[in-house]
Amino acid sequence: MRVSRWLRNEYLIYPILIGLLAVYVIFNRGLLSVFQIQSLITSSAPYLLVGLGEAVVIIAGGIDLSIGYMVSLTCVVVATTTGPLGVPLALVVGTAAGLANGILITRFRLSPLVTTLATGSFFFGVALHILPTPGGSVPGWVSNLAEENLGPIPIMAFLLILVIVMAWVTLYRVPAGRHVFAVGDNLEGARQSGIDDQRIRIATYAVAGTLAGVAGIFLAGQTSSGDPNIGTPFTLNAILVAVLGGTSLAGGVGTIGGVVAASFVLTVINDIIFLTNASSYLQYIVSGGILIGMLGVSRGLRLIRPVPAPPAKRVPGR
Amino acid sequence: MTVLSPFIRAENIEKRFGATQALRGAALDVGPGRVHALLGENGAGKSTMMKILAGHYRPDKGSLTVDGTKIQDLAHWTTQSATALGIVAVYQELSLAPHLSVAESLFLGVERGSLGFEHGLIRPRRRLEAARELLASYDLSEIDPTAVVGDLSLAIQQMVEVVKALARRPRILLLDEATSSLPDGYVRKLFDIVQRLKKAGVAVIFVSHRLDEVDQFADHASIFRDGTNAGSMDAPFDRQQLIEMMAGHVLETNQPRSAPAGDVGTPLIAVRGMVLKPGKAPIDVNIQSGEVVGVAGLEGHGQQEFLLSLFGAYRPVSAILQVHGRRIRLASPRRMIRQGVVLVPQNRKTEALHLDLSIQENASLMSLSEISTLGWVHSRQERARVSALIERLAVRKNRVDDPASSLSGGNQQKLVFAKVMLTNPDVLLLVDPMRGVDVATKAALFDIIGQMADSGKAIVLYSSDTSELVGLASRVLVFYEYHVVATLRTPNINNETLVEAAFHQGGLNNAGIALVTE
Amino acid sequence: MTKLRTAGGWLAYRGVGAAYAAAIVLFLVGSLFIRGFFGWGHILAIASTAGFVGIVGIGQTFTLITGGIDLSVAYMLNFGALLVTGITLGSSHHFGLALLVVGAVAALTGLVNGVGITFLKIPPLIMTLSMNSILEGAALLYSNGTPQGASPPLLTALATGTGPLGIPWLIWFWAAVTAVVLLIFRRTVFGRWTYATGSAPRASWLSGIPVDRVVILVYMVSAVAAALAGLLLAGYSGQAYFGMGDTYQLESVAVAVIGGTSILGGKGSYLGTVAGALLLTTLTSLLEVLNVGASMESMLYGVVIIVMMMLNRQRPTS
User: What ipTM score was computed for the predicted complex, to two decimals?
Assistant: First the structure.
């Protein structure tokens, strides 16, 4: 466990982001304009939201493959609910969906991977049932929230900062937040320390659902309509952002800063591909390759600089 | 001694794990301000007792009394209920989350109670202060509370674990081999901590394998053997008597095996300069055909690593390995099996057997190359070979197509033996093969090991039970802190000499060997 | 298969039995309430449709048994289909070449997956999910976004034609493949090693099994099986199109899990996966006849997977 700090995945993302921004500036032949920064923030918003939710789940030792479909579900809920209730209803639906995931996984001891794959199918079905084809309408103020700027700063930026601050306070200042890390890091030890691990794990899935709900509302606002397919790519993107940001699938490790940086990395990559006039299909290859590349590189670096021998109790070879 | 109102009293405790009766009617009785040592050989039931007291296990039978009140509902005896009564345990295995900081770890799970924060939020500065104060109050201010636990040495982690327990303000503190990875300086500090707790009226129960510590720490000692009380003693302790109580008398009259005649010919397996951990003395051993070499010592002193190294499953700092006089480079289990070296690992369920697979599949897994051509398994040949051996080893009652998990512990162990014997090996490395098996199986395995030695195989046997070594080995290597501190030979191998040599302190003097070879 | 009790242990067979029983019950229920549901023709139609997901499920069964998962099957299938239609352009002329190319691409994909998982220690979920994205990009680049050509006549005949006894060629083919897979699992060293690796990796390593090689080979089998399904699907539809593999990602995992294969590794059988494929296809067919729509189908998929997982769930043994 005594890996030199900068070789850890959690810090590898910052140099990547800086490098990519430099490349971006070069291709852009100049500094970033205000408009570009605005669009960078709004484009990375949904990545950040779903990535944060996924990261929290993964830190506690789980995985959620239904996030994309929760995004779709909440998106269509907003677009089909008339009156002011759409947004709160979408948040409730997202949270409830996450809660269902958590309860199925912890109380019935089901595999998180297959369970969320299955519930994802269910949520997608519900979304499709509510709104079979893209359409519906979204209240103006939701669109404004997603699109408009307050002076030079997008309103969404304030919302994101609020979410980040709330996540930060919960993870680092509230005991339960610390327990999320402890549960993912050493489940048995956490139980011994008197932590109710099931409640913590259920809560992480619920949080992921809520954040997927926020992303769904945002996307509905951005497109001014509902689309049951809009969330499909976000399951991979959520995992991508979480793991790219240094969250370890083994649990117990992850930072909010890493997730924020990773969501920008994803957006900047897409923008660079767009700017270079390269085939937009490259986007898929890059977004798949970058994760493998980064995990491979960090593993390779560790092989070059071997980790000290493990303590006597743990015998290598696993 | 007479303590009128004992803090904690355990009576008639029984606990069974599968075929193993870990505790049979054990008892413990500790008063406030007392330091109570729990002693015994490996597998005597000390750890089980500690885990029952801490709520980690529930006893099958028996009663627990805390503060004079009998605990009625033992079926719901959990760590939480134990903690609520002020019973806190520190185990050898750490309960720390490796990625949290020291300060976070100390108050994990008890943040609200011990940090007293406003608005429900942790104030890291105050937590840091509290951690620093707590560490300083136990004279451990050199531990940086901002450090990440996983970056600390094992010894410091162990101390953090102790302080974490103290942060829970225990009234009864259980230290289960908490000193096993501590260097002398920290043992000293732990001793001071225990003295302070004692003055404050806290009861301390501790398990240790270091008799020097017992002399220093304890007011009273209970000796466990075979899951029950073998005696008790007040300080100052008579060491010779302690050892005798722990070792007991030799139960069976095993005919000690004689060493094979002379050291002629090339050894089947030879090790030169094997260093298991940096800075430890190298190990040199030659093992001849027909020989049973015992490996002894306290648990976790390198015996397992030694056997795993011979099998290519652990990478020692350095070693030269020869099988049949030929040097083996870059050993791996796969390669060693081809060279005729096989291992019976310690953990039956995760290392030796595939419980989901059938008995037959398990038995032939190591020797599939001999019953297959181009990757196609000849099932009739397989069945014939497996059934014959299974019958010989008397693994009965079950059909060979039943999963291995359907066998009892003893039969599972026989199956492991069948599996390695089907490869027709020259060298057998046995890691505690008789742990947790019943008496009948033990006797059968005794015979099997003896027969295999007689048929010219070389055998390395590590056992945590000294009486097994007494019965089988003609030579015993005694390990202490990852090197061999003593080599005992046949007439001198008995329970007393083995226990004596195993408790040998540090290897600075060779008193252990001198004492034994007299 | 007379000896049902070898390979995999009896626990797996409870799942197999439940899945077959559920498929039959479902079919009978459909027959009771829907006119024309019962009939030899319909049974054959269900069985041949089940062949596609059943063949993708081969790979999933292998990877799940080793304790992994392959989520790159969706675009492996799609890429395979695109390659075969693109190379042959609807003629038999280059069919041999097409087979060679598809086989090589699939083997390479599996190799990369396996190497990433074993040597770079990238979790299977991330490795294969990323690979899926890479393959999607590769497929888009290859066809430049618009699929070319049509399926060669031989494939069309295999996927849609009727063979001896009035049974579609596809069923004959699937039956033959099933026999081979069952033999691999039960009668070959590789099959044994697959179970052993997933059941107890360390015990396998200590038993001299080349664990890394087994895992790599398993992912190669999975990629090849997915590509094979892609060829058949191209033959069935006469052409290739984007998104043709999307549903198989969930469904291939679902049919294996429904058939009693444990996501934790070491347990399962292809016979169970076949049952899972029949069950899921019967369900789909029933829902199609009832005309409940794609939304209800998706929801029911989720429910069925979770219910079957609960049924197959082992009691924790003390």
Answer: 0.83
